[in-house]
Amino acid sequence: MKSQLDSITAGVFEEQDGHLTQSDPGPKIDRIAEITEKLDGLAQKASGETADYILAARNHCLEYLEERDGDEQSRDAGPE
What we know:
Layout (H helix, E strand, L loop, with lengths): L1 H16 L10 H18 L2 H30 L3
Helix pairs in contact: 1-2, 2-3
């Protein structure tokens, strides 16, 4: 669980500060999806209030991914 948490923390700081933990981390959307999966794993191992906080963070990531997907579909459709 500690290694998952460390990985998530590094990814979040990377997005906030622009300091890369990987030489080629890929598109931001992929990194957020990766963090979402790691949060899922952590939530399964946690309990009580801790699990609630982890799931809330995961839900925020999912909302971000859905918004981005909607924005990309709007751009792909172009003006009517």
